[in-house]
Amino acid sequence: MQYDRIDARILEIVQKNNRLTSEVIGEIAGLSATACQRRLKRLRSEGIIEADISIVSPKAVGRPIQMLVLVTMERERSDIIDRFKKAIKSSAEVVNGFYVTGDADFILYVTARTMEDYEQFTRCFFYENPDIKCFKTMVVLDRVKAGFAVPVEMPPCERQTNR
Question: Which of 17, 19, 106, 163 is the most buried (most CB within 10 A)?
Answer without folding.
Answer: 106
